[in-house]
RNA sequence: GAUUCGGUAGCUCAGCUGGUAGAGCAUCUCCCUUUUAAGGAGAGGGUCCAGGGUUCGAACCCCUGCCGAGUCACCA
């Protein structure tokens, strides 16, 4: 990690040494007895109240023997007022003149002890009596500023840098931090909603011998001592159902899930799902549960059921519309899929510009039609219900129509947010459906399951109570609630390509070495002769010469006749 | 994978038909006891993503590569 330090980084390292020379530990061990936070100070202002606060120094305005600075803590910023003669009561003004003004830098964590007051302009501030350095910052932060009209100057906006250095992003972009505060609130709201209803939060394996419960390409890893392949989970469905078989009546899990597929602005290789299973319920109950849950979450996060996403206004207020998949397709295409054969659907797709291939079964074809022609039209939360049986291998058959299942997906802004079933609990039917999936997979449908989890079938044979289950995409939900169209904006540390390694610059490059080797034999040489002997490309020559003189290894001397001589610098 | 745009100082960005790089903030020095995006004055700071080509001369034009963003395709 040898890396060229910028001038500013060097200055900060020097300050670090000077602080130590003054007997100040830049990274002290002792706790700092913080009494309050910036938001509290502003909310309950009391003239003269003594406080101790801590945070990062984020700006400084010197006014001679006085100075204003801003301290940023987890709640926001508060102005602090440093007056030389209040900090340094004796004649020794070192703490103000040297430590505060010269050796502290923007980004340093400091603790401040003082009392509250309002400046002549009416700004709530802390008059500093004592301050301590709590942690020195050696790398300058990006420094956006907001002016009186709310315009942001020098904004730190480059997405790559923001995602790679999320820590800096969080420090300087309060709106980014707010997204993650909201994400935490969403998790709390959802969790307490479930706990209030008597459901238990459980944990199931992330490392699985069979990646079941969904159709997706898994990440493969290897267990050394067992010497078997293991998979990162693509869902937790089967494990959660096993807990109901074991006697739990309501369980949920916030599950990091992994899918080895494309990465783009709506897909991160690992993402968060919430899955919940409740015994003795069906999908009708679950729909009502879902709309109440989402309304509750929206209010907990934003204080309102309204949200804006991609230019659309969404309202999470329950209840939501319900449309059967058959009706949805009729509405947007005029096609009635009921009793259509695979061949009929295939030819309809071809005629209507939907790409199909021979691996597609009936369910997949219907899914394609829906995805292509209908999905994007549902802006406000809408339940699409009653999916074809073929594409829902874990879902119970519809009570009125054996070709359908009791399944819903909740669509918002044309995207799936939740997926739920009246769960299939007939072990014999389940086994047949798995086998059907296996055939589809063999046919080439890469969305069909490739494995049969026989342990799950064994569990089902003991009997699972009638159950309804639902999965909710947490990332997607928080995207809707915060108006972010990119998943990277709502995941703290999104997966990125590895950062290119910084190349070492200390060693001479080939072109530089070539020039220097020739030159060092004689010590000096006419420029054009040297250029010819070096035999480099023009650019290689030019760059080589420039960096050699930059390294202070060579210099060029101009003769009276205009000739140029290159010399080795001793 | 296809296509468009981009990569210049610590940060945000200029840089014309090619003539060897600029601004604001930040940094450094000096002055200033209640300011508000920015107190005043001055100074320093750059492998212009990398490599090759064209040219007397390339940040700029051409080629290749790397990295990123957007759109589309594929995909939950």
How would a textbook summarize the main sheet? Answer: 8 strands, mixed
Number of helices: 18
**Based on DSSP secondary structure assignment, what is the total number of beta strands?**
23
Strand content: 15-25%
Secondary structure: helix percent: 25-40%
The side-by-side strand order for the widest beta sheet comes to: 8-12-13-20-19-18-17-16
- Overall mean pLDDT: 86
Q: How much is the radius of gyration in Å?
A: 33 Å
Poorly predicted ranges? 501-507, 558-562
Classification by helices and strands: alpha+beta
Instruction: Please state the overall shape, judged from the principal axes of the Cα atoms.
Output: globular
Distance between the termini: 30 Å
What would you note in describing this structure?
35% of the residues lie in helices and 24% in strands. The chain is built from 18 helices and 23 strands. A hairpin with a 5-residue loop joins strand 6 (145-146) and strand 7 (152-153). It is globular, with a radius of gyration of 33 Å. Mean pLDDT is 86; it is low at 501-507 and 558-562. The structure holds one RNA strand of 76 nucleotides.
Task: Give a brief rundown of this model.
The protein has 18 helices and 23 strands.
Descriptive tags:
570 residues, alpha+beta, eight-stranded mixed β-sheet, five-stranded mixed beta barrel, 35% helix, RNA-binding
List the helices and strands and how they pair.
Layout: H1 7-21, H2 38-43, E1 50-63, E2 66-73, E3 76-83, H3 84-87, H4 94-103, E4 109-118, E5 124-135, E6 145-146, E7 152-153, H5 159-164, H6 166-172, H7 174-196, E8 200-201, E9 207-208, E10 220-223, E11 228-232, H8 237-245, E12 250-258, E13 270-279, H9 283-302, E14 306-309, E15 312-315, E16 321-324, H10 325-333, H11 342-351, H12 362-374, E17 382-385, E18 407-412, E19 415-422, H13 427-443, H14 454-462, E20 467-473, H15 474-482, H16 510-522, E21 524-526, H17 527-534, H18 538-550, E22 554-558, E23 564-568
Helix pairs in contact: 6-7, 7-9, 8-14, 10-12, 11-12, 13-14, 16-17, 16-18
The chain binds one RNA strand of 76 nucleotides through helix 1, strand 1, strand 2, strand 3 and strand 6.
């Amino acid at each position: 990690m040898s890396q060229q330090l910028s001038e500013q980084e060097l200055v900060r390292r020097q300050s670090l040494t000077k602080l130590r020379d003054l007997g100040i530990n830049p990274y002290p061990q002792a706790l700092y007895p913080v009494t309050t936070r910036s938001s509290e100070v502003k909310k309950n202002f009391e003239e003269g109240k003594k406080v101790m606060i801590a945070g990062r120094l984020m700006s400084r305005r010197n006014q001679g023997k006085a100075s204003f600075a801003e301290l940023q803590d987890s709640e926001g910023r508060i102005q602090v007022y440093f007056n030389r003669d209040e900090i340094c009561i004796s004649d020794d003004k070192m703490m103000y003149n040297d430590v505060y003004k010269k050796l502290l830098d923007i980004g340093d964590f400091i603790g401040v002890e003082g009392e509250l007051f309002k400046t002549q302009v009416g700004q709530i501030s802390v008059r500093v009596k004592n301050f301590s350095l709590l942690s020195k910052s050696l790398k300058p932060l990006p420094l956006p500023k907001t002016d009186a009209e709310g315009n942001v100057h020098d904004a730190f906006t480059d997405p790559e840098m923001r995602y790679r250095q999320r820590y800096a992003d969080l420090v300087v972009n309060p709106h980014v931090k707010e997204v993650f505060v909201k994400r935490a609130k969403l998790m709390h709201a959802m969790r307490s909603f479930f706990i209030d209803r008597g459901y238990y939060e459980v944990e199931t394996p992330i490392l699985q011998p069979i990646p079941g419960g969904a159709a997706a390409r898994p990440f493969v890893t290897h267990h050394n001592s067992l010497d078997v392949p293991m998979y990162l989970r693509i869902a937790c469905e089967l494990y959660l159902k096993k807990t109901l078989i074991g006697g739990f009546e309501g369980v949920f899990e916030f599950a990091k899930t992994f899918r080895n597929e494309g990465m783009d602005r709506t897909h991160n290789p690992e993402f968060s799902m919430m899955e919940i299973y409740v015994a003795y319920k069906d999908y009708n109950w679950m729909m009502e549960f879902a709309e109440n849950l989402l309304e509750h979450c929206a209010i907990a996060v934003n204080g309102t059921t309204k949200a804006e996403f991609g230019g659309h206004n969404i309202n999470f207020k329950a209840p939501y519309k319900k449309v059967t998949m058959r009706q949805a397709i009729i509405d947007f295409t005029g096609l009635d899929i009921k009793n259509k054969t695979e061949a009929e659907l295939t030819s309809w797709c071809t005629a209507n510009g939907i790409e199909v291939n021979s691996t597609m079964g009936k369910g997949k074809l219907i899914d394609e039609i829906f995805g292509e022609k209908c999905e994007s039209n549902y802006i406000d939360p809408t339940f699409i219900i009653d999916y074809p049986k073929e594409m829902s291998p874990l879902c119970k058959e519809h009570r009125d129509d054996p070709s359908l299942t009791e399944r819903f997906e909740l669509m918002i802004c044309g995207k799936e947010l939740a997926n739920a079933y009246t769960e299939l609990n007939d072990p014999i039917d389940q086994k047949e459906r798995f086998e059907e999936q296996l055939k589809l997979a063999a046919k080439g449908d890469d969305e069909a399951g490739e494995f049969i989890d026989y342990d799950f079938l064994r569990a089902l044979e003991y009997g699972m109570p009638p159950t309804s289950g639902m999965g909710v995409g947490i990332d997607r939900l928080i995207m809707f609630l915060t108006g972010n169209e990119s998943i990277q904006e709502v995941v703290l540390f999104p997966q990125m390509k590895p950062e290119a390694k910084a190349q070492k610059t200390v060693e001479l490059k080939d072109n530089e070495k070539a020039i220097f080797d020739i030159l060092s034999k004689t010590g000096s040489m006419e420029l054009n002769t040297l250029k010819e002997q070096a035999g480099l490309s023009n650019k290689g020559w030019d760059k080589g010469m420039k960096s050699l003189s930059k390294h202070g290894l060579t210099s060029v001397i101009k003769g009276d006749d205009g000739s140029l001589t290159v010399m080795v610098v001793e």
